[in-house]
Amino acid sequence: MRFLGWILAACLGLAPIARAETVRPLPVKVVVLTTFEIGADTGDQPGEFQLWVEGLPLTETLDVTGLRHPARWSAKDGVLGVVTDMRARPRESLAALIQSGRFDFSKTYWIVAGIAGVDPKAASIGSAAWARYVVDADPIYEVDDREIPSDWPYGLYALETDRPNVKGSAAGSSGMVWKLNPEIVDWAYGLTAGTALPDTARLGALRAPYAADTAAVKPPFVLKGDVVGTTRFWHGEKRTRWAEDWVKLWTDGAGTFAMTDCEDQGVLDVLDLYAKAGKIDFSRVLVLRTASNYSRPPTGQPAFPRAFHGEGAMAAFDSAYRVGSVVVRELSEHWDRYGARTPKAKTSGN
Do 17 and 245 contact (CB within 8 A), yes or no? Predict the structure, then answer.
């Protein structure tokens, strides 16, 4: 009967229906998330992505619907590199990546690796911070600084409140604060704390005016420090004070502001939502931010033109790869150890 059916189909000019082959998703050990690249992925001036592509290396190019920038892949190591784009766009990019169906993220470690502004109280340009907390500062009320009440320290305050430094609610807008798995954060810090980060005379010159801040004048180093995420770029003494207070407020005093960037709040919010849907494992998420500039001017000096420095950005690109790649290689090369269970630090550090 089956043979006769094929004969009949051929006579009628009907093509037989082919069975669709199921494409097995690629099992991913580690995803490295960066936010931008300056030019090409290789061979020119690097941005956040290029050192990862060249250094790991990530030799294969993958087009993923919903990502503007092609992903890079190492089949040998099971490592995927992604440019999410900046500010608000990472939400769309991450959702597209997870929903693409091309990858198995069930056991994946996620490492956000990008540059940031650093609080001079916490660290110096070129330093690298593993975050314990990421705090969203986008859902916020803002009063023009020229019109704030005289007894307010600044004109920024939480939704559902009527003054600064009161914890409000952002239901329907954001998770607001995400605590990363402290065991894996401590492990990553312990693994990389001794990483040598290059120093230069030009970096030293950028540090020198911050003599009043002990951490700000140190050569670049690795630390644990927490993140404020806003889609807007901000800078200044009062804004830095606000960021310090904001982290304390939303972490109930447990966090300490170190780095400010434009993407981590979106990245963590999306990863958290998909973790709750069973698509990823949130206990395997790490955030590494490296300092390209200070979040405020030196004490007593004007805010500009000190907001951003090309030398600082290059140092931060380098630090992100030097520190982050230690963790990526450890995870991918010892998957028999880390695939089934997340690592723990032998001893707790600061």
Answer: no
Pair 107, 27: CB distance under 8 Å: yes
Contact between 39 and 45 under an 8 Å Cβ cutoff? The reply is yes
Distances (CA, A) of 204 to 70, 198, 301, 311, 327: 36, 11, 18, 11, 28
Question: Tens of pLDDT along 90-107?
Answer: 999 999 999 999 999 999
Q: What is the pTM assigned to this prediction?
A: 0.91
Q: In this predicted model, what pLDDT tens digit does every residue of 242-272 receive, in sequence order? A: 999 999 999 999 999 999 999 999 999 999 9
Residues 6 or more apart in contact with residue 122 via CB below 8 angstroms: 129, 215, 223, 225, 256, 257, 258, 259
Could you say which DSSP state residue 147 is in?
Answer: S
pLDDT tens readout for residues 328-338 = 999 999 999 99
CA 336 centroid distance within chain: 26
Burial of 237 (0-12, 13-18, 19+ CB in 10 A): middle
CA dist., res. 122 & res. 137, Å (int): 19
Instruction: Look up residue 303 and give its two tokens.
Output: 């805010």
Count other Cβ atoms within 10 Å, centred on residue 92.
16
Helices (H), 236-307: 237-250, 264-276
Please check whether residue 223 is in contact with residue 197, taking contact to mean a CB–CB distance below 8 angstroms. no
Query: Following DSSP, what letter does each residue of 43-70 receive, concatenated?
Result: SSS--TTHHHHHHTT--EEE--TT-SSP
List Cβ neighbours of 44 (8 Å cut-off, separation of 6 or more): 38, 50
| The two structure tokens encoding residue 280 | 């990823």
- Gap between the Cα atoms of 19 and 30, Å rounded: 33
The answer to whether the beta carbons of residues 42 and 19 sit under 8 Å apart is no
Query: Is the peptide bond preceding residue 57 cis, with omega within 30 degrees of 0?
Result: yes
Helix axis angle, 182-192 to 310-333, nearest 10°? 110
